[in-house]
Design brief:
The protein has 122 residues and is mainly beta. The protein is built from 1 helix and 9 strands; from the N terminus they run E-E-E-E-E-E-E-E-E-H.
């Protein structure tokens, strides 16, 4: 599935689309994920050329393995990762790193959870 967002480019609103993530990122299962509604959460400091983090995914290796927060570009390539103690810790870290942008968590349908769950869980 592809999601469309609007971003401002040179003073004009431009639409862009990004596909949902694959089931696995860097060999880890995607537990939940979010795409920025504004074209990016932030740009990686010191990256040349500039790398914009436009999506984040909470992922787990195996059923009981380590949990990571993956920060991704528009192609779901992992550009930065953080190891976390739990899925909840990774989600909280993502919200801290989102620079004030809303983080709307989603899950793949076959996980048994709602696809478009609001961040407050309602």
């Amino acid at each position: 599935m592809s999601r469309t967002s609007a971003i401002e480019v040179d003073g004009r609103l431009t639409e862009w689309a990004m596909d949902d993530p694959p089931r696995l990122l860097d060999g880890a299962t995607v537990v939940r994920w979010a795409i920025s509604r504004s074209g990016g959460f932030y740009q990686l400091a010191g990256s040349d050329p500039p790398i914009k983090v436009v999506a984040m995914a909470v992922c787990r290796y195996g059923e009981d393995g380590p949990v990571y927060l993956f920060k991704c570009d528009t192609n779901w390539q992992v550009v930065q990762d953080w190891d976390c103690g739990s899925v909840e810790e990774a989600a909280e870290l993502a919200e801290e790193h989102a620079c004030g942008h809303p983080v709307d968590w989603r899950q793949h349908l076959e996980t048994g959870a709602a696809q478009d769950r609001p961040r407050d869980g309602r």
